[in-house]
Every structure is written in structure tokens, then in C-alpha cells.
Specification:
By secondary structure, the chain is an all-alpha fold. The protein is built from six helices and no strands. The protein is globular.
Length: 132
């Protein structure tokens, strides 16, 4: 027995499955920048949010949307130089949750930010500290 599926029927099935999957997954709540500034206090020992002002780590001013290892004047690890990451909500959250899990060989040795709400808040804060 041969089963025939039209392209339109297949597209409808995929769209229905996609819609069902999308509604089954909870959406992450948007972060709160004010709470994120508090979370960032953990990061401030090594990172600045002043454009061009590096510390032990690079400045995080304007980090959202920037390729990893792209801040001029900072000596990045080979792992970061080869990572091909672009900093967005998801990559920042994954990185702070486990730096060496996302970028094995990173020089960053900070305790992980494990709570999803803290990660979202941190990302929201970093979006407010763009480069000037």
C-alpha cells in the first residue's frame, strides 16, 4: 500500500505540529534590568560596563549583539577566539550558567548564574549598557 501526501497536506501537518510544540513550551519571562543590575554586582569585580574600560575581563558595554572576542585591546583565550559566538539573550544565559560548558578553555572562572530569572535579568541589564 502506497501512501501519498500532498505538499499542502505535509505543510499543514508541520504547521500544526509546530504550533502545538510552541504552545507546549513555556516562554521565558522578560528580564528586569533593575534586578539585573543587582545580579551584575557578581560580575563587576572583573567586568566594567563603561565602554572601553577593561578589568580582568573585557568591558561588557554593548556586548549584546557583539561577536565574542571582539572587544579591541583585550587578550581573549584561543577558545573564545575560535568560538564563533554572537552574544544574544540565549548565548549570554548559557554562558553565565556554565562558562566552561559553553566555551571549554575559557579563562573566565566565575561561579555560575544558575537561576533562569537571574540570567534573564542580567541580560535585560546588559541591554541597557550599550556602547556610547
Amino acid at each position: 500500500m502506497m501512501i501519498r501526501i500532498s505538499i499542502a497536506g505535509a505543510a499543514m501537518a508541520v504547521a500544526t505540529l509546530g504550533a502545538a510544540a510552541a504552545t507546549a513550551l513555556p516562554l521565558a519571562p522578560p528580564g528586569d534590568a533593575a534586578k539585573g543590575k543587582t545580579v551584575f554586582a557578581r560580575c563587576a569585580a572583573c567586568h566594567s560596563v563603561v565602554p572601553g574600560k577593561k578589568g580582568i575581563g573585557p568591558s561588557l558595554a554593548g556586548v549584546v549583539g557583539r561577536p565574542a572576542a571582539a572587544m579591541p585591546g583585550y587578550s581573549y583565550s584561543a577558545a573564545f577566539k575560535n568560538s564563533k559566538l554572537v552574544w544574544n539573550d540565549a548565548t549570554i544565559a548559557r554562558f553565565v550558567a556554565g562558562p566552561s560548558k559553553l566555551v571549554p578553555g575559557t579563562k573566565m572562572m566565575a561561579p555560575p548564574v544558575t537561576k533562569p530569572e537571574d540570567q534573564a535579568n542580567l541580560v535585560a541589564y546588559l541591554k541597557t549598557v550599550g556602547s556610547k
